[in-house]
């Protein structure tokens, strides 16, 4: 089966593609879940810290279920982790199954710690994830480019696109989601139906964010007169855009959110919000189209309408929300071993962000090639 033509969003950094070999194996790609809160150490729920390789979260739960007798529905987890690579995460199950796991052993799944808590872990109950990535076959000249890209991303942030994982092996998840909304495709499984619809929403978000990256590039590189003509805005508005020192430009009427989580609000005083954006206190939130999404206004909404206009007719069928369009790296570390031609990178991302998106921005190429 041929792959669908997946929309390829713009990179915001300007360097040429960098040569490096990346493989999502357990040695070169490690994901460690960062819990949202400390576990109390007491309560009716057993908390397991598991380490798995080459298993999805669902497969790991099935293995634990078969060994313990605990039903899948009684497990709790904060999020699904990739099958590829080495990943760690916390899961919960009723304390009564603790003794059945004392002899647990599996070649691809380990229980590294255990504690207790009052509540079951629920979806979304994580702060984020820490990632370790090893790049191989990296020449010294390319190592310099990688280091410069990381430094720039650490300072300025990155385009918080949805990663390729959202769009499926053949890249047709978004198309299938649209067909469901248009009533051209039937889907009996409600979870799969919602997932495919979310892929459609995600592609629209990526298109909007790519448009904003393009606009930020034009505003940075074009003259005030050119910006005025291109976007049909006043000279003062163009001057306001040009005066923003950061790459990703903020518009009046943007939906902003306190970062990394907090209430949403409309951007009214652009200059004061630019100052808070520079401190990484707030960020611009893009539209996940649907009836419950917080509405933008003014020029920001005009730009959204260009992308989302055809999808508004589905508003009553989907809830919608907002997602940070621009996000930031934390706990950044990196090193280069010239003898082995290997470049190691580690960083933390808030929940919902993709390490593969960051890596593609650094390398400026499709990492699956």
TrEMBL record:
GO terms for molecular function: RNA binding; tRNA pseudouridine(13) synthase activity. Residues 157-338 form the TRUD domain. The keyword tRNA processing applies. The active site is at 82 (nucleophile). One of its GO terms (cellular component) is cytosol. It holds the Pfam family TruD. It catalyses: uridine(13) in tRNA = pseudouridine(13) in tRNA. Its EC number is 5.4.99.27. Responsible for synthesis of pseudouridine from uracil-13 in transfer RNAs. Belongs to the pseudouridine synthase TruD family. This is tRNA pseudouridine synthase D. It comes from Campylobacter blaseri. The gene is truD.
């Amino acid at each position: 089966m041929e792959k669908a033509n997946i929309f390829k969003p713009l990179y915001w950094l300007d360097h040429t593609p960098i040569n490096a070999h990346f493989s999502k194996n357990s040695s070169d790609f490690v994901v460690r879940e960062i819990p949202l809160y400390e576990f109390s150490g007491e309560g009716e729920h057993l908390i397991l810290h598991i380490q798995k390789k080459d298993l999805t979260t669902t497969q790991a739960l099935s293995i634990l279920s078969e060994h313990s007798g605990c039903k899948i529905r009684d497990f709790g987890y904060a999020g699904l982790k990739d099958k590829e690579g080495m990943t760690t995460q916390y899961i919960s199950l009723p304390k009564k199954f603790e003794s059945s796991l004392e002899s647990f052993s599996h070649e691809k799944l380990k229980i590294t710690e255990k504690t207790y808590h009052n509540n079951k872990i629920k979806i979304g109950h994580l702060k984020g994830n820490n990632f370790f990535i090893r790049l191989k076959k990296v020449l010294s000249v390319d190592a310099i480019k990688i280091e410069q890209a990381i430094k720039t991303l650490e300072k300025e942030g990155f385009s918080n696109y949805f990663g390729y994982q959202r769009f499926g092996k053949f890249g047709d998840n978004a198309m299938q989601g649209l067909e469901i909304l248009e009533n051209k495709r039937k889907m009996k499984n409600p979870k799969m139906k919602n997932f495919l619809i979310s892929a459609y929403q995600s592609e629209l978000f990526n298109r909007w964010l790519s448009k904003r990256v393009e606009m930020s590039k034009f505003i940075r590189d074009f003259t005030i007169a050119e910006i005025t003509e291109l976007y049909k805005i006043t000279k003062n508005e163009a001057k306001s855009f040009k005066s923003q020192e950061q790459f990703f430009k903020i518009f009046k009427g943007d939906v902003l959110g306190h970062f990394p989580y907090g209430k949403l609000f409309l951007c009214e005083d652009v200059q004061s919000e630019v100052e808070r954006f520079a401190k990484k206190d707030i960020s611009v939130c893009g539209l996940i189209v649907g009836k419950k999404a917080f509405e933008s206004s003014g020029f920001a909404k005009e730009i959204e309408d260009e992308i989302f206009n055809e999808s508004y007719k589905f508003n009553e069928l989907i809830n919608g929300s907002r997602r940070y369009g621009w996000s930031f790296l934390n706990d950044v570390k990196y090193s280069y071993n010239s003898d082995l031609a290997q470049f190691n990178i580690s960083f933390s991302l808030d929940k919902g962000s993709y390490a593969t998106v960051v890596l593609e921005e650094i390398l400026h190429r499709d990492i699956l090639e």
